[in-house]
């Protein structure tokens, strides 16, 4: 993030990222497909899965997802939240990063569908399961955009509020 902040995304090279991380150029590519992957890769999936699986069985799938997501965000430090906001701001501003992020959101939708399907004993390709997963991903996108534009906002609070609105039928 420091290099992107100082030089801009386009001017920052993989070589510079590898040097700053004190790794070789080839080692960089063992972990990342390119510099866009540094900003768009989601490392929180295992945490989300664990938190979701720990939710009480009496909760609806949406309640369990909301609790799991909010609890993991609430555990993030101020530095992690600042980095996430800065990363989101870059992603929104740079078309190739936005495209990679949308692709990642599709993968997130599939992950959520699989988690929910396992919880309720249905198939992940069930239309209702996919619709719920898509709605949750949509909420994440709206919160991501809002947080990037409102840096003083409480990300965990926004996520909880937005998922609560979804849970309550949005009330439009």
From TrEMBL:
Keywords: DNA-binding, Transcription, Transcription regulation. Residues 13-32 bind DNA. SUPFAM superfamilies: Homeodomain-like. GO terms for molecular function: DNA-binding transcription factor activity; transcription cis-regulatory region binding. This is TetR family transcriptional regulator. The lineage of its organism: Bacteria, Bacillati, Bacillota, Bacilli, Bacillales. Residues 1-50 form the HTH tetR-type domain.
């Amino acid at each position: 993030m420091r290099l992107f902040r100082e030089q801009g995304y386009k001017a920052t090279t993989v070589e510079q990222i590898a040097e700053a991380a004190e790794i070789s150029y080839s080692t960089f590519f063992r972990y990342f497909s390119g510099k866009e992957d540094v900003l768009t890769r989601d490392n929180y999936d295992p945490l989300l899965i664990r938190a979701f699986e720990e939710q009480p069985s009496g909760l609806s799938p949406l309640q369990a997802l909301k609790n799991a997501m909010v609890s993991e965000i609430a555990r993030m430090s101020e530095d992690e939240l600042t980095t996430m906001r800065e990363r989101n701001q870059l992603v929104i501003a740079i078309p190739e990063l936005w495209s990679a992020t949308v692709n990642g959101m599709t993968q997130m939708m599939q992950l959520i569908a699989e988690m929910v399907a396992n919880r309720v004993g249905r198939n992940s390709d069930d239309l209702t399961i996919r619709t719920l997963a898509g709605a949750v991903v949509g909420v994440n996108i709206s919160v991501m955009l809002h947080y990037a534009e409102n840096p003083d906002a409480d990300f965990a609070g926004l996520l909880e509020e937005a998922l609560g609105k979804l849970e309550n039928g949005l009330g439009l």
